[in-house]
Amino acid sequence: MTYKLLGVGTNAKTIKGDGDEYLTAILYMTPYKVMVDGKLFNSCSMAAMASCIEGCLYSAGRGAFNNVQTARQRKAEWFYRDRDSFMQQLHKDIAKFANYCSKRGIQPCVRLNGTTDIRWELILIDGKNIFDSFPDVQFYDYTKIANRKVSHIDNYHLTWSYSAANEKYEEMFWDVIRNGMSVAVVFRKPVNLKTWRGYKIVDGDKDDLRFLDPKQSIVALYAKGKAKKDQSGFVVDIAA
Prior knowledge:
Blueprint (H helix, E strand, L loop, with lengths): L5 E3 L3 H6 L4 E6 L5 E4 L2 E4 L4 H4 L15 H16 L1 H22 L2 E5 L18 H4 L4 E6 L12 E6 L5 H12 L3 E6 L7 E2 L2 E5 L14 E5 L12 E2 L4
Parallel strand pairs: 2-5, 5-6, 6-7, 7-8, 8-11, 8-12, 10-11
Antiparallel strand pairs: 1-2, 3-4, 9-10
């Protein structure tokens, strides 16, 4: 399967969850700030506060290759330069992917923010967001925006990404948990604890199907790429 915007089978972790029941397609674009036609756009509005720029997964795995980063840059430029045609192509890709999965009896899953944190729920075409357009597709993402209003969207699941690099950002943890969301925590080394801050830990590197996690889970992830050397507080050293 080839798509202009989506990638399938290109992420080592999503592959672990791909099989007879689920298949995940991911949209990767340049994260954080990107210059397009002399204008600066920010695809990860909380990245500076959370200090996850240097440790971003953008540098992990295939993302470390220049040709991969160039392709992601082109997609970001397309998104910001011609939003209408970009969204039309994204709809075509998702429809094609969903049809492929339907013929095989597999649940199609899509991550729109593979390396970004865009509020897709606010992008409307004819009064509908992309989740409305594909009610049978399970969408899910990680986010650092604690107050995204998506609880009413049945087929979109968000996991909040923790960081202790900024006191105000770290304090959002408790609001997020109270609202029933799960929290992804990047640990420098594997942890053997069953809970963290009183909440159950699930292995986030086992697979990427976050919508299957119990509510208020601590999703344990482990530092990859440049994140292995992060000292900002984004990567957690102590597991208590």
